[in-house]
Design a protein that fits this description.
Helix content is 30%, strand content 17%. The protein is of the alpha/beta class. The strands form six sheets. A five-stranded parallel beta sheet has the order 3-2-1-7-19, covered by helices on one side. It has a five-stranded parallel beta sheet with strand order 8-17-9-10-13.
Length: 482
């Protein structure tokens, strides 16, 4: 006899859709997916800026069980990915389970069940909660004085206002992360004048974003297993390169380092090249893969502004050198409240302990999935997941399969609650700490979104193969099973 369990999945982005698909495949039909926005798709719904594409090869980024012959290039574009995840949600019958415009405001455990409240005043109960909110969900506005005084069009990169005309206008972009680099490559050539406000120079690797011909797509469509094989090969290439960031494969990483430096060396103006040269190691912050960024910023209609921002005024941005950069459109490509796993809501356990307080010094979860003291509250892509060196779809699949095995004793009626054992959680963090020192993320760069409150990288510091091995089967001695 199997217990009938009720699940609440939080978020209908890539990992929430995956969770729903896997629950259905397991015959666990009693679930709802709560989504704060008006559609599914997560990151690929929210980000619609010009030039958006993924930095993980397309066939590696999609779900392993839903390879896609339609990708038009080596990297999938934002619209393609949005369409892909929407299609998956429909194809696998998730839409009847999805509750759109349902923003979670409170999660508390009462009498052995989770009670989840949403902003629309509704309350739901579940045996098991799976938090799939992801790591880059909530846009971060910069703390620049006068933000509200600007009279032109202004928006965050993840809230693009498509009603605003762009061609021939004076456009300013604040930020130099992956987002700003892609926007610059796509938008600067269309602007009358383009100003990129740089606080920190970043390394930019060439993406070699090859387009795929109709013929190649046709081959992917008709040859069984071709997309799967391509995904495997692309994955091998990606993980070989990614090994370098955790210090396990110097040659591959040296090649990436060389490519970044060679890319930068193509900037002809020595002063501009100097201004674009980072003062940290390649890969210390998330590496940007982007074609056309340097060409765009070198063009005569574009300007790299390195003077600090003093404030925003009605007509544009005033820099500390006293200059007013007049703008019609201001884009804030200023990132996200990254790796914040309780943003906008609280989680309280039966004893009244709050997760935000337990995580005062930084979020912790055993294998990125389970939290001590919070039974049956699980996460996909939770704290210290390998988001710096592994595909997020692969992480979600591995963690979800692990989770389904972990809850087997509950399904069989042999247990009712499972949480990470506090000692195992501590040991796991010591183990992560031991691996962190040799990663490139620890080599000294400030303000990276990879860094936590303690200034240490919040990522998994070992190769993806180690992560896969560690999550193959749960070791129940690492958990409190009640
Ligand atoms: P980000 O990497 O966090 O970059 C934010 C940028 O805004 C930084 O350059 C930061 O400067 C700047 N900034 C923030 N506050 C500022 C202020 N008050 N004044 C001046 N500058 C300020 O954010 P992102 O570019 O949106 O990228 C986030 C992540 O999303 C990426 O690393 C990547 O993982 C993902 N992403 C992926 C893709 C892709 O797949 N190709 C595309 C876009 C995004 P400092 O550097 O000085 O802090």
């Amino acid at each position: 006899m199997r217990r009938n369990l009720r699940f609440l999945v939080l978020g209908a982005g890539m990992s929430g859709i995956l969770a729903g698909i896997r629950l259905k495949q397991e015959g666990l039909e009693d679930f709802e997916i709560l989504e704060m926005a008006g559609d599914v798709g997560g990151t690929w719904r929210d980000n619609t800026y010009p030039g958006l594409s993924c930095d993980v090869p397309a066939h590696t980024y999609g779900y392993s069980f839903e390879r896609n012959w339609r990708w038009t290039g080596f990297y999938a574009s934002g619209p393609e990915l949005g369409e892909y995840f929407r299609r998956c949600a429909h194809k696998y019958g998730l839409m009847p389970h999805v509750r759109l415009n349902t923003r979670v405001t409170d999660i508390r455990r009462e009498h052995g069940r989770w009670v989840v409240e949403s902003a629309d005043g509704q309350t739901r109960e579940a045996d098991i909660v799976i938090n799939c909110f992801g790591v880059l969900c909530h846009p971060k506005l910069p703390d620049i004085p006068g933000l509200k005084r600007f009279k032109g069009a202004m928006f965050h990169s993840a809230r693009w206002d498509h009603s605003v005309p762009l061609d021939g206008r004076r456009i300013g972009v604040v930020g130099t992360g992956s987002t700003a680099a892609q926007i610059t490559a796509a938008l600067a050539p269309r602007a009358g004048h383009y100003s990129l406000f740089q606080r920190t120079a970043q390394w930019v690797a060439p993406a070699y974003a090859l387009q795929r011909s109709e013929f190649m797509r046709g081959l992917h469509r008709i040859i069984p297993g071709f997309s799967r094989l391509t995904g495997k090969l692309q994955g091998e290439l990606f993980y070989e390169i990614a090994k370098g960031v955790t210090g396990d494969s110097d040659p591959a990483w040296r090649a990436v380092d060389w490519l970044c430096r060679r890319n930068l060396a193509r900037v002809r103006d020595p002063e501009l090249r100097r201004a674009l040269t980072p003062d940290f190691k390649v890969g210390c912050r998330r590496l940007i893969f982007c074609d056309g960024f340097y060409e765009a910023i070198e063009a005569t209609n574009a300007e790299l502004v390195t003077a600090g921002i003093k404030g925003i005024e009605a007509g544009g941005i005033r820099t500390v050198d006293g200059r007013l950069h007049e703008l019609d459109v201001l884009v804030l490509a200023t990132g996200f409240h990254a790796l914040n796993y309780t943003y906008g809501f609280e989680v309280t356990n039966d004893a009244g302990a709050r997760l935000s307080e337990q995580w005062t010094d930084g979020a912790r979860a055993l294998h990125g999935v389970a939290v001590s003291g919070f039974p049956n509250y699980f996460m996909l892509i939770g704290p210290h997941s390998p988001v710096g060196n592994f595909s997020l779809t692969a992480i979600s699949e591995i963690q979800m399969d692990y989770l389904l095995q972990l809850i087997e004793p509950i399904r069989r009626g042999e247990a009712s609650a499972i949480a990470a054992d506090p000692d195992a959680e501590r040991r796991y963090y010591d183990y992560l700490g031991a691996g962190m020192a040799k990663t490139v993320w620890s080599s000294g760069c400030n303000r990276s979104w990879y860094l936590g409150k303690d200034g240490q990288p919040q990522l998994y510091p070992y190769p993806p193969t180690t992560f896969v091995r560690e999550l193959a089967t749960p070791d129940l001695s690492e958990f409190v099973v009640a």
